[in-house]
Write a structure and sequence with these properties.
The complex is a heterodimer of chains A (about 80) and B (about 350). With about 80 residues, chain A is of the alpha+beta class. Chain A has one domain: 3-Layer(aba) Sandwich (Glutaredoxin). Chain A contains three helices and four strands. Chain A has helices spanning about 10-30, 40-45, 70-75; strands at about 1-5, 30-35, 55, 60-65. In chain A, a hairpin with a 2-residue loop joins strand 3 and strand 4 (about 60-65). Chain B is built from 17 helices and no strands. In chain B, helix 5 runs parallel beside helix 7 (about 130-140) and helix 6 (about 115-125) runs antiparallel to helix 7. The longest helix of chain B is centred in the middle third of the chain and has 33 residues, at about 205-240. The chains are: A alpha+beta (about 80), B mainly alpha (about 350). Chains A and B meet through helix 2 and strand 4 of A and helix 4 and helix 6 of B.
Amino acid sequence: MKDVRVLGSGCANCRATIQLVEDVAKRMGVPITLTKVDQIQDIARYGILATPGVVIDGAVVHAGGIPSRGQVERWFAPTPS
Amino acid sequence: MDIQASRRAHPRTFLVAAAAAWLVAYRALAPTAGRAVGWLPVDPGSRLAESLRFFLYDAPKVLLLLTGVVLVMGIVNTYFTAERTRALLAGHGEGVGNVLAATLGIVTPFCSCSAVPLFIGFVQAGVPLGVTFSFLISAPMVNEVALTLLFGLFGWRTAALYLVLGLAVAIVSGWVIGRMRLEGQVEGWVRELPGAGPGVARADGSFADRLEAGLAAVRDVVGRVWPYVLGGIAVGAGIHGYVPADFLASFMGRSAWWAVPASVLLGVPLYANAAGIIPIVEALLAKGAALGTVLAFMMSVIALSLPELVILRKVLKPRLIAVFVGVVSAGILLVGYVFNAVL
């Protein structure tokens, strides 16, 4: 189970990002818990300069603008181990 | 899918081919527009034909310019991430820092919904308050969309003046705010945050990735902005030859001294992006309003907006917000007067 957090104070791009993450995860069959972080005090803790930001399992993987579909797919791709 | 794959494999070739196609299309605009009007069932000497020719030439011209500039800037933007800009600014004090911040505001991608995280990130990294404000004023106001539209519709002189004066407002306002030593007017919780984190560790992408980012910017910006551009040009085309050109001259012309402050005051509660304001600018100018007055109005609408002030209130105390609005308004006011006096 991946822990995904989308940081952003409810702008259009943030909503589109949440939609995209949900869609890609469902399509790839990856179980996730999706949390919306919309309080600026909480967002500030992650040290991002632009919203929306995406945090996966505690690591900031994206900040600013809607990520591309290919990018999201790479986040959810099984890691070769 | 095929095109996409070969674009990724040969991004530079794609860019050269696109540039060539762009140039051919741009040069073909005027003759094509003239011929298109010839096919329509209107009297070629009539006002309607004149308006149509204006619209059929200007609309594709401005959209083509916008596409080209947004693509190039979308690629350039990938070299100037907010993280890199912050690192550059943290190394400079006031003065040089203000100039640098305002200039970087042109090339750093910025969305007003990110104003607060950006403000926090800059302050955390030790960028001086006034320098941060220079960036926050310049980034939304002086950007490629505003400049391209001004250039395409009103010529390079208007665009250049807007660029120079917009930068001047951002530099001077930021410097003045810095001089006032208002660090205590930033909300306490911001100052108590730990030092700046590393932000996103972003690997420098390949040129193919940068090109994709540029194309994404075109889809996003041009896709969002084109109705406003068409609206603005339609207003211009409609006025072309119909409404008396000095309709507004008496009360928004150069001789009306109160027109500039009135425009700035009117602009603060209004909010639109650079594209949304263009139809209004076009209409005002075509009806004889003075250029300085109109540009002051445009700057005030874009740079000072109620929604942004509401967001900034989360990190700034009311006094600093008031100072911010006051200083920037004064700067824009001055720009309006200087513009009207010089031109």
